[in-house]
Amino acid sequence: MAFRRFGKSLLYGLPLGITFLDCVGYVARVDGTSMQPALNPVAEERDYVFLLRWGIHNSVVERGDIISLISPKDPGQKIIKRVVGMQGDVVSTLGYKHEIVRVPDGHCWVEGDHTGYSLDSNTFGPVALGLMSARAVAIVWPPERWRILKNELPRRRRPVQVAKANYYN
């Protein structure tokens, strides 16, 4: 009887759990110092964030959002960065091969908050929007760091020129 109830719960619960993780979101550990001070402000401690997949490709990403994406350099690795520019924006770069870059259609410009300690668009250029996998919405661990992540873009990193018609913001 108990086995039958367990089997039935598993039969219903497993697809619901997989659907939630695949469509809504999941919790992930943030490694590295590239997003300091917003994430992992103390190098020895790790933040865990809730990554929201819901609507990631349907106009919910804006400049200043922290996103998870597949690394353009290593497709087996996921990275977490802040969106600095959207398609059509003109951004000033920090060590990229051109000082000023217009972000091509279908792309965004991402950077780590810890300038100089981040492999980001200043290294690999504009990133295809299709590589975005989720938007970080909250720090969920450790408990003393619980908070909703604000959409903040430092004044010095704002685009030189914002595109008039943006599909994703």
Q: Mind describing the biggest β-sheet?
A: 8 strands, antiparallel
Helix content: 10-25%
In the CATH hierarchy, what is the class?
Answer: Mainly Beta
Distance between the termini: 53 Å
* Domains, number: 1
Overall morphology: elongated
DSSP summary: helix tally:
2
> How many β-strand stretches?
10
Content-based structural category? alpha+beta
CATH topology: Umud Fragment, subunit A
CATH superfamily: Umud Fragment, subunit A
Beta content comes to 25-35%
**Average pLDDT for all residues:** 85
CATH architecture: Ribbon
Order of helices and strands: HEEEEEEEHEEE
GO molecular function: serine-type endopeptidase activity
Domain Peptidase S26: 18-92
Subunit structure: Heterodimer of 2 subunits, IMMPL1 and IMMPL2.
Membrane topology: Single-pass membrane protein
